């Protein structure tokens, strides 16, 4: 999940710079007598807890162990300054030294890993994120037909301030240690390292998957593991990733913000007509990166080109020509989400513009409601995860669970959104290891992290090694396209190909 900061900054979405790499150490069964006292008087976390479970996928019965526990984060003086909670699923039976282990991160910043866990790739899932889903629907965990459990063990990591993970220091120190781009990558990479050591899995094939801002994290974590911690990564999967803030900057001058969002708007319009296919999208993508960009750069110097652009954009988006003309052919996300569904007095979600909610103030000049998907997923994901952790697994913790933490988002490094990018480390990580593979996956209807940004980024990368090492796949749906069964199945097939199984 990504976009929390843009709620405040742009009003459109609902949704390390200080110090060096953090030193970590293993707790001894919760015994931490030698560490300095926390800044807070908090109830200690319980010891790791495990439970045997069963799931079924692709005609197979999988017996596995689910473990919930925590790992410490220490500063360079050995003081424990935070505790990161993880949920791990490991296949039962004889240990296979070549069985992969996958580390999963969500985004925000401020999102727990519950969305990938209970929505996309974990052995169990709860339904959320699709049209018609309800915040008050029964919370029931069912076998996940899209799980990766049959070909990889899975470790879901909640960054500090999300899930049950917590800082043990005040806000000022926490901002420097956790709530900033570079320290975030450093301590989370070390958590991966520590889990591997603690569980004797350093020799296993290793994969990193991240969604949204977690997709921003994934290539940077892979690069940090490669270059700072001596851990090779076999593959990286980026789910609806946010990769480069600059691509969306300066829409008054640069054509790029409009170029990257037009294809997703057009895809949503095609989908409503039942005509969304890769073949239907090809000329739209060609127009966006070609004539549309050229006509935007012309500005008001060519009235005929401007009018042709208005007609083209109105046709692609399904919006009224007069409105598009008033906007100069530049349809902003907020306008599209509201105008596309105004006749139904509903609003589209930035995460999937064809998932709608009622507009409580349809006659207001400005939107006055939250995002339909964001408003509907907090309850089912929080309730399902807390019940699983505390009742099913029996990890009895005293604390609040944050599926999405506004507090983390508020504390995050000032101005990070203006120039944060992962493309540099992405390229370096691919160059460093000629055998590492990358899969980037998006939903067509996602306006939070539009697929066309990744398309342009990948197309600008130099060829490095065998063709197909870096792939981009786009599926029907939005940010959480895996809420749709067919798109989840397509993701599973593409990931299995990346892992070399099938």
UniProtKB/TrEMBL annotation:
This is Carboxypeptidase C (Cathepsin A). GO terms for molecular function: carboxypeptidase activity. Keywords: Carboxypeptidase, Glycoprotein, Hydrolase, Protease, Signal. InterPro entries: AB_hydrolase_fold, Peptidase_S10, Ser_caboxypep_ser_AS. PROSITE patterns: CARBOXYPEPT_SER_SER. The lineage of its organism: Bacteria, Pseudomonadati, Pseudomonadota, Alphaproteobacteria, Caulobacterales. It comes from Caulobacter ginsengisoli. It comes from the Bacteria. Residues 1-25 form the signal peptide.
